[in-house]
Amino acid sequence: MTLHTISVGTAGPRIAFLHGLFGQGRNWQQIAKALAGPNGDQVRATLVDLPDHGRSPWSQEFSFEAYAAAVAATLRAVDPDARWAVVGHSLGGKVAMLLALEHPDLVDRVAVVDIAPKSYGSLERFEGYISEMKRLPLDQLTSRADAEARFEESDPGVKAFLLQNLRRDGDGWRWQANLPLVAADADKGTGSAIAGWPLTPGEVEPFPGRALWIAGGDSEYIRDEDAEAMRAYFPRVRLLTVKGATHWVHTDAPEVVIEALRRFATLS
């Protein structure tokens, strides 16, 4: 499976960005442009649409291994000889971790944003979003403004984030993300594969490269007890907690994340 990507920058180290659930590669465009610099020659960034998201193909069943394999094939197609810094947020952070663990020849270093290598039990946090997306009458929409008016989400940032998945299709509208797949996974409750984690410490060789773990200070996705598992997989991990940031750390505190990733991507 070849995934859709956006390229930012013309020279410098290779860095790939992986978004979270219902996101798209372009969610990282502001960060990538800042890292590339005014002349675009500081880093070469590749913004990836994960399977079932954005403009990438859909899959029949969710699998972290399949996601990681698709990202690996896509990055090798971009540059067969490169070793990459990989940045992933939430769902993309889990994919980034698995990519590093299973393809250490491809990944030089990994930055994981506000997610831990563990099962979160279920997609309960997303069930309200999924229900509202399913409720939107796509066949009745007259415009994007109409969709925004009908979509019942009190947080304007979350509403905009979810509705970026809405695309005009001829005379109608469709969800660009694979909503049926995500909804079916959410219906599994504690059996959710998306909320899960496919490995146990000791099952794979620890990642030998550098790892940066970025946590939102106001987020509950990373807890103190997660550090043991993170160190087992990534012995060279360094934790950065961003005060005042929620789960969407790079949206809440872009300047902090940009500076941290700038050092991370160029550190020899």
Automatic annotation (TrEMBL):
Gene3D superfamilies the record matches: alpha/beta hydrolase
| Chain ranges of the AB hydrolase-1 domain | 14-253
* Presence of keyword Hydrolase: yes
GO MF terms on file?
hydrolase activity
- Protein name per Swiss-Prot or TrEMBL: Alpha/beta fold hydrolase
Keywords assigned by UniProt, alphabetized = Hydrolase
**InterPro entries named among the record's database cross-references:** AB_hydrolase_1, AB_hydrolase_fold, Epox_hydrolase-like
Q: What is the lineage of its organism?
A: Bacteria, Bacillati, Actinomycetota, Actinomycetes, Micrococcales
Among the Pfam families in the record, one is: Abhydrolase_1
